[in-house]
Amino acid sequence: MDSSLFTAARINKFSGTNFHVWKFKMQMVLEERDLWDVVSGEVKIEHCTSTLDQATFKRKSRKALAIICLAMEDSQLPLVHSAKDAYDAWSSLEGHYEKKSLANKLFLRRRFFTTMMGEGDDVLEHINRLKTLAEQLDAVGAPVSEDDLVITLLASLSESYQFLITALESRADSLSWELVTSRLLHEDMKRKEQGDEIEGAAHGQAQAFMSRDNKRKARPAKKTGACHNCGKQGHWIAECPSRIHEDADRHRYQRANIAQEPELGDYLFSVGGGKTKSSYMWLVDSGATQHMTSSKEFMRNYKDFGPVDVHLADDGVVQAIGKGDIVMSMMTRQGVKKGVLTNVWHIPKLSRNLFSVGRFIKDVVPVTFEVDGCFAETKGFKWKLGALEGKGLFKLFMTPVLPDEVNVASPINFKGDNTSYLWHLRLGHIGHGGLDAIVKKYYGSGIGMKSVQKWEFCKGCALGKQTRVSYMPKSPDRARMLLEVIHSDVCGPMKTPTFSGKRYFVTFIDEYSHYCVVYLLQNKSEVATKFAQFVALAETQTGKRVKTLRSDNGGEYTSRTMSKFCVDHGIMQKFTPPYTPQLNGVAERMNRTLVESARCMMEHAELSKSYWGEAVMTANFLRLRCPSRSTSHDKSPYEVWSGKKPILANLKVFGCHAYVHVPKPKRSKLDARSIQCRFIGYSDHEKAYRFEEIKSRRVLVSRDAQFMENVFDSGRRDYVQDGAVVEEEAFMEDEDVPMEDYSSHDTSNMNFEEATMDGVDEPGVKRHQRTQSLEALANAPDAKRRARYLTMAEMSATADTSHSVETAYVVDSVGDLPRTFKSAVESSDAVKWKEACDSEINSLRQNETWNLVPLPQGRKAIGNRWVFRVKETKDGRIERFKARLVAKGFLQKHGIDYDETFAPVAKFTSIRVLLSLAAKYSFMIHHMDVKTAFLNGYLEEDIYMAQPDGYVDEDHPDFVCQLKRSLYGLKQSPRMWNQTIDKFMLDLDFKKCKTDHCIYFKRDQEDLIFVALYVDDLVLVSNNAELIRATKDALSERFDMTDLGDLKYFLGVEVNQDRSAGTISICQSKFAKDILEKFGMDNSNPVRTPQEPGLKLTKSMCVDGCKHDETMANVPFRNAVGCLMYLMVGTRPDLAAAVGVLSQFSADPCPTHWQALKRVLRYIQGTREYGIEYQATNNDKLHGYSDADWAGDVEARRSTSGYTFILNNGCVSWRSKKQSTVALSSTEAEYMALTEAEYMALTEAA
């Protein structure tokens, strides 16, 4: 066998992976056999001048091709089957595995920049991995610079190499690849050598140490050296009798960290052995006299001193060369704290970081060793220092903090009392002076502090507050009574909207009390409406009249609406001159205070900026209960305003985690009794807290909670895609009954009595009508005590009509899809989206959809955009990614770019009749789809379109597309397509149904076939399989078709045929489930009827109309009605009456209408699987039923007609519609309903 073939056989056969490595090896083999020139294309047959040279070339090419093929797995051989020579085969492989497409570059770059080295990974392997990816990028035309290669390597290293990275970064000269890799490999070699030496020495010592306790073995040698505990010869500290007696006097369960029973793990620790561990790991040592570490990088205030010998338990000696302080992060039973270990010795050769119990006891507090760990306890806190691991070793529950991280931490001194800092957080990051005033002057009760200790640093305040010194003196002419002067200002727009789309907030501040009311706004134009609400509220609560409004000269305050309201109510308006915000200092300072407090709370809790609405409302709630330097009443604004002292004992830290009790009616016996939530504020209508459930994003209003005020998480979610939060309209509170002070460990008596409302556990709005009081509901015999579960799209509901109505928001799941070509190719599914776009463009080009031409003078090119969609099967699985290029047809002009646009589609009634007949006669039902259907129609007008994103012609970037064929998005495209396929179906000898021009049929003696056309979906129904096949072939020959086989899923309708049983069932369970999820009702409680018995919906329920009420402006009422209507039209006749009534209020819905719509959704929750079943019966006659609801519309006195038609035991047509005229009697209403039913029977059902 040729040696070259033998060499190729020894190379791992190429299986489709690691092409870069295989390619390099093969190149070496071919170079060695002098064959590379014919493979690489350096020499080609046309270069050979003589016949002999050509023969030599062919022989070498065949030999090279054989070597390449023998080095490939069978699965890869089809790639080179058609190759003419070795060069062709090699080019084919390179073209397949080294594509220079954007998607391939994106894939390799993502791998390159996300490759990380784990702890314990081999350094050389990691370096080679990155180098290989860089070479692959270079091969596909996306080279990586040396700087990027070095930066990526350093950034991908594990944490244990952090010190080396720091050292390399400090070099003045530039870092080369050779320098960095050599330093890394040298460091890796040193670590391996040190680890082997220490492990070997320690293992040898341990073997001797272990043998001495085995009495049946040889007598151990006498110990040399003095005991470090008593100073006597002949034993070590672990065997010291004095120490053993002292330990016996302590509690039986306490034990030192160096075990008294010599086990392997214990002795390795006592001699400092074992492989080098992470510098972040510390072990508790009860025998060490000092804190010791080998890691200098964590030290602050470092001081060198002369080498000091440190004796280990095995008589080994290491040297300390300096000392410093290390900030440690620790987990306490109150959460994460930070503290400083002082005078930590630096011992470079120490392989374990040691935490000295003796030093800690001397400096701080006693340490106790318990079964579940060792603890240090001081007033107010108990730290768990370590947990028992393995053979008596205690791993320290602390990790060191690098000096550059200490600046943004909140260090807590071990000895300090943290109560002051905790109340600083609870009160929305109040200043030291304000907190001191609360304590000294007893502004509030329940704090439990006699004095305030200064806290060293607060991360939230550092990030949230940056101030300039005020230069405006206070005005000597101050208000002398409530509501004498009201200051107001608008803050915004915020770059990040709230979850309900609010971008502004407005404050109204009473100058006398400094009591502030905050409203969130979508637009500044709402200020006048909010001021009217504030005036009504303030004057009712205080019994006084608003006299003066002071504001800036903004248009929201000088508008005609605002001016008229102030004139009508006798309110004087005072404006500040332009560009002098200092003259409106009260409102300006209030807005700044609220924003600073909100920012501090969000930064401290690490919440996204979308929480600013919740944070501002909470900040105002807290500020009203804190003293203000602007008042001289020695009272908080709340107390001046209401005459009641605020209760502060129940305040908690914004954004912290809590476990909220789940009421018994909301859980089963085996369910957990609490759920983990995030605290997001205080309810303005109940004495309760507001929580966001972390997993489901629901909002829960309850007082039964255990708070973890030092536990937070990032909480960063894009609720704009998952759902939205409803912002509170005004944050007011009536605290006439104080909340009792309770322990976080006892929640047995902490339930609130709450209004039991219909649909309260679903997103949406509360009832508009007045309901019973809380006390009445609580005392009712059948009242159930429960916490209320809402979504972030819902506020806490109350029973009083004076409170604002909340708004619910939903976003369709398709919000996750890319909206532009750029976002598609940068997403995680970039390859699939790019393939979908390529397929669309190829279809357009194959159909010759356009010609590239210069734009004629006087014409304007319309734009286009990419529309992305994921096509799913009926069970929700992804079938394929689809991309569609859509023209911006809304820019077309009638008479120039288009004329007629109407195009018919098959009626649902017709399709259901076909399915009913198929069940009766056991017909076969097939489904086909036309790919890019609209491209088959030819345009009659001249239309010019811009070139699509991502596919602009490089040679003619300024040209435009002159459209020849209809394109998706054009107004006339559906009509052009319908005319094309209609002509084709008639050419195939099909006839059109007279009552539905999209139902085609054809007879062939005893055989019959129907074709239902719905845009680009075709349903074929026939008793003859050959007739279906022939029709499919004809369609596929003319159009680009997709044969989907038996009909399973059509326009959101699931079809199941059982030919043996003679049944066909249709339903829309997936669509119903999607609707419930879309509107946040998938966890709602089902009801038995879609309408509430006896409830008559009227337009008069909307007091003064709701069109200008922003609380209902974003309620998706019309969206929900549209979804319900499609469900009803498809397979749900039981929804017809309810949907017909609700659709009458789409233009101006009120909260009661929204509650009625949610009841329909709750009905669907219990009937998602409902549908229609057609059966093979002996009676195939059409049966119809008609009825009328006489004067069902109590306002217009018009009746409602209803009918349904049944064929083969299944509904095929139904309707519920309000009659066009008033019926004078029930008989007349019945006749009018019967007329509509007869019309349907004569037209549609025919």
From TrEMBL:
<dbReference type="Pfam" id="PF22936">
    <property type="entry name" value="Pol_BBD"/>
</dbReference>
<keyword id="KW-0479">Metal-binding</keyword>
<dbReference type="Pfam" id="PF14223">
    <property type="entry name" value="Retrotran_gag_2"/>
</dbReference>
<protein>
    <recommendedName>
        <fullName>Polyprotein</fullName>
    </recommendedName>
</protein>
<dbReference type="Pfam" id="PF07727">
    <property type="entry name" value="RVT_2"/>
</dbReference>
<dbReference type="Pfam" id="PF00665">
    <property type="entry name" value="rve"/>
</dbReference>
<dbReference type="GO" id="GO:0008270">
    <property type="term" value="F:zinc ion binding"/>
</dbReference>
<dbReference type="InterPro" id="IPR012337">
    <property type="entry name" value="RNaseH-like_sf"/>
</dbReference>
<dbReference type="InterPro" id="IPR025724">
    <property type="entry name" value="GAG-pre-integrase_dom"/>
</dbReference>
<dbReference type="Pfam" id="PF13976">
    <property type="entry name" value="gag_pre-integrs"/>
</dbReference>
<keyword id="KW-0378">Hydrolase</keyword>
<keyword id="KW-0863">Zinc-finger</keyword>
<keyword id="KW-0645">Protease</keyword>
<dbReference type="Pfam" id="PF00098">
    <property type="entry name" value="zf-CCHC"/>
</dbReference>
<dbReference type="InterPro" id="IPR036397">
    <property type="entry name" value="RNaseH_sf"/>
</dbReference>
<dbReference type="GO" id="GO:0006508">
    <property type="term" value="P:proteolysis"/>
</dbReference>
<dbReference type="GO" id="GO:0015074">
    <property type="term" value="P:DNA integration"/>
</dbReference>
<feature type="domain" description="CCHC-type">
    <location>
        <begin position="227"/>
        <end position="242"/>
    </location>
</feature>
<feature type="domain" description="Integrase catalytic">
    <location>
        <begin position="472"/>
        <end position="645"/>
    </location>
</feature>
<dbReference type="InterPro" id="IPR057670">
    <property type="entry name" value="SH3_retrovirus"/>
</dbReference>
<dbReference type="GO" id="GO:0003676">
    <property type="term" value="F:nucleic acid binding"/>
</dbReference>
<dbReference type="InterPro" id="IPR039537">
    <property type="entry name" value="Retrotran_Ty1/copia-like"/>
</dbReference>
<dbReference type="InterPro" id="IPR013103">
    <property type="entry name" value="RVT_2"/>
</dbReference>
<dbReference type="InterPro" id="IPR001878">
    <property type="entry name" value="Znf_CCHC"/>
</dbReference>
<feature type="region of interest" description="Disordered">
    <location>
        <begin position="203"/>
        <end position="225"/>
    </location>
</feature>
<keyword id="KW-0064">Aspartyl protease</keyword>
<dbReference type="InterPro" id="IPR054722">
    <property type="entry name" value="PolX-like_BBD"/>
</dbReference>
<dbReference type="InterPro" id="IPR036875">
    <property type="entry name" value="Znf_CCHC_sf"/>
</dbReference>
<dbReference type="InterPro" id="IPR043502">
    <property type="entry name" value="DNA/RNA_pol_sf"/>
</dbReference>
<dbReference type="Pfam" id="PF25597">
    <property type="entry name" value="SH3_retrovirus"/>
</dbReference>
<keyword id="KW-0862">Zinc</keyword>
<dbReference type="GO" id="GO:0004190">
    <property type="term" value="F:aspartic-type endopeptidase activity"/>
</dbReference>
<dbReference type="InterPro" id="IPR001584">
    <property type="entry name" value="Integrase_cat-core"/>
</dbReference>
